[in-house]
């Protein structure tokens, strides 16, 4: 692998890590006042300011909370804390 390719890969990893960190903080900040456990999708979506339509955009990466509906499974519930919500969503989005 060329040095140029290695550097590009490192930059991509770093940017991905920064995006993950920023979105994770934002999600945690939004849901931290919720009553836990969060038992289902409707309760989860209602925690966000625009519900399913809440958009997270950082650089060229963008997703809506509603997109999480396709990624979450019944077995993911209940969520016990804000970090768990953020981690599962980001994991499923492969960030």
Description:
It holds the Pfam family MTH865. InterPro entries: MTH865-like_sf, Uncharacterised_MTH865. It contains 4 helices and 2 strands. It is mainly α. The chain has one domain (3-92): MTH865-like (Recoverin, domain 1). Strands 1-2 form a two-stranded antiparallel sheet.
Keywords:
95 residues, mainly alpha, Recoverin, domain 1, two-stranded antiparallel sheet, 4 helices, 2 strands, 53% helix, elongated
| Total domain units | 1
Continuous helix count: 4
CATH architect. name: Orthogonal Bundle
Provide the spatial order of strands within the biggest beta sheet: 1-2
Mean pLDDT: 88
Structural class: mainly alpha
The Cα radius of gyration reads 15 Å
Annotated CATH topology: Recoverin, domain 1
Share of β-strand residues: 5-15%
InterPro entries: MTH865-like_sf, Uncharacterised_MTH865
Write the layout of secondary structure elements.
Blueprint: H1 3-31, H2 41-46, E1 55-58, E2 61-64, H3 68-71, H4 82-92
Antiparallel strand pairs: 1-2
Helix pairs in contact: 1-4
How is this structure best summarized?
By secondary structure, this protein is mostly helical. Helices cover 53% and strands 8% of the residues. The protein has one domain (3-92): Recoverin, domain 1 (Orthogonal Bundle), CATH 1.10.238.80.
